[in-house]
Write a structure and sequence with these properties.
Chain lengths: ~650, ~190
Amino acid sequence: MAKIIGIDLGTTNSCVAILDGDKVKVLENAEGARTTPSIVAYTDSDEILVGQSAKRQAVTNPKNTLYAVKRLIGRRFGDDVVQKDIEMVPYKIVKADNGDAWVEVSGRKMAPPQISAEVLKKMKKTAEDYLGEEIKEAVITVPAYFNDSQRQATKDAGRIAGLDVKRIINEPTAAALAYGIDKEGGDRVIAVYDLGGGTFDISIIEIADVDGEKQFEVLSTNGDTFLGGEDFDMILINYLADEFKKDTGIDLKGDPLAVQRLKEAAEKSKIELSSSQQTEVNLPYITADASGPKHMVVKLTRAKLEALVEHLVDRSMEPLRMALKDAGKSVKEIDEIILVGGQTRMPMVQKKVADFFGKEARKDVNPDEAVAVGAAIQGAVLGGDVKDVLLLDVTPLTLGIETMGGVATPLIDKNTTIPTKKSQVFSTADDNQTAVTIHVVQGERKQAAQNKSLGRFDLADIPPSPRGLPQIEVTFDIDANGILNVSAKDKATNKQQSIRITASSGLSEDEIKKMVRDAEANAETDKKFVELAQARNTAEGLVHASQKTLLEAGDKVTADERSAIEAAIKQVEEVVKGEDQAAIEAATQKLTEASSGLAQKMYAEAQAKSQAGGESQNTGTNNKDDVVDAEFEEVKDEPK
Amino acid sequence: MTEQQNNPVETENPAAPEDQTAETVVDIASLQAEIEQLQQQLADAKDQTLRTAAEAQNVRRRAEKDVESAHKYALEKFASSVLSVADNLERTLEVADRSNEALKPLTEGVELTSKTLFDALTRFHVEQVDPLGAPFDPAFHEAVAMVENPAAEPNTVLQVMQKGYTLNGRLLRAAMVVVAKGTPKKIDENA
């Protein structure tokens, strides 16, 4: 099924995302970055560079390095914004024959859609590299204030890039989709506060339920095209440079390397101060003068940063008021506020927005990627993906059986997608055990008794054998309807029994939640329980093995050895009834020591025998990978 | 408890033969229709299964790629943050006064420390990009300035202000360079 990608074609950066399965994935480009600068450069050798590499050579090729083309796309040459741009950018902006704003590169006139198409081509390739299949369709986002001509031009850019643009959607709408606001019931009015790298946009949109479908209507937009994260950085850079000049008399701004380091350090500190109350700008060897190298060390607090940039955040408040006025809505009528753009991560921005609207904004979706994510969701809906994908259930709690010691042994982990099937081989706990009880339990606790019992059955007529030898294959099979079939088969005789458990015999939604919470709360207790059970099982296993050895050794064992071993066995049997794990382990250790001498003797003899062609023992437990050594069936003498 | 058993197909006792004929003819037609319908469903289901299997394979392949990528570039963030340490150690050595005997032990110490760091970087496939004199390549270099220099080839790196680094071949940080200005292009440069 061909996928439709979602592209956020931004003024400074672009991002591409796609619905993969049931989750939206933002795709990394060839350089490993999740966003790509919207910059296109035409080099001397007629090479076209897009993204970071275009950005890096901008200084060497300013006239042919095109950026912020979004300011020109779909506009007339005479447009105010275009005229202003001409003064600001080093590349040539010209009037096309039809009056549109075009650019001129190396004497060649080109339309902005052609330039943006290069960026779109790179986003297309990013998606194709990831998916391993051709991408032919996309959803592209535009600002809510874009007019028809600008939207059409964006669509043209898509076509030039080889993409059938299934829909052009508004950036605030895409953000709302990313937040799933359309899934929440009823008509709602949303404010989208988008403070990105270079521009600030506020949009008030209304989501209405029309004949079962959600319609998005833009009530108003406003903003400030010269307000963004980069301005915040600039203020910090200037502050640091000024402080340094005060201390040392040196002006760093003339040194491009120092400025670059300052820029990186300023951005890094700004980000750190969003989660810490203070940070340190630490730049050794930032510059040098006659007296030697100079270092910059400046402590920066969140309070200081906020004081420096507060006026910028306040500047975003006036467009907010205007947007509300134009939409004819009061602050109280805004149901949700969502934050878009990296700079909205700053606590002060979040606080001022919350204070303005009287409620907290939604910020759980990555603000740099929300728009692309929303476009991908729209793409998936248009592509029918959301319908075609079988909504598969998961089993909400772990399913397993009770094994020796009352331990709940999992067979199917919680949150496993169904239908699914899992088998595991178990064995008997005692010699000559002729039946096993399969007790099916559901839950996260390690103690089977603490979980919910779903059912039990017996598998009988197991041929008498030493413990651990029989192979009982237990299979859990859940079908698409959630019905669980548990079967147990003796691999030697092929005798099989099974039980069918329907969904209604499990737990309700609330019970499930409680279970998971309880398991977390009791993790420590459960851990001790498992360790105790294991200690007991090990102890009992050793007792059994020692008794067997004693029996087989017959008269080869000395009276002293025998009494020592028997005493140690007796001690183990006593403590194993109790709860003291340490005592059990100590007694086990003592028994090991007592019987080791004898065991070695027996082993040496067995070796001598096997060299003469004897067969190895313990074929049951050792050579099958899927038999879990320490788990044995719990013995039930009377089949239930 | 269910057990494996053969389910005998239940057949109805045949009723009086003659009356059945008309009904049986009709039945056959509707049965045939049903068969066609079932065959179509079967075909659809088979198709769906194949698609699902194919998608599963794709997902598996993508997962493998993701894991491989994660391994290759796991150190990315950490390596990036360590680069400034490498930079500053190099800078220390650049400004160290080698003629000062009193400073010698300190300078040597820094040299050895620097070497240890660079050895560690190399061991983890972090390689340095030092393109002095090489042609400018925006894939690995970032130009911070362009200056005239008749002695140098145009569009080559005149000065490396800060070295670049790669991790397993992928760029970690571009080298900051000054590029020699090329000859004026044939098209006029008047804005």
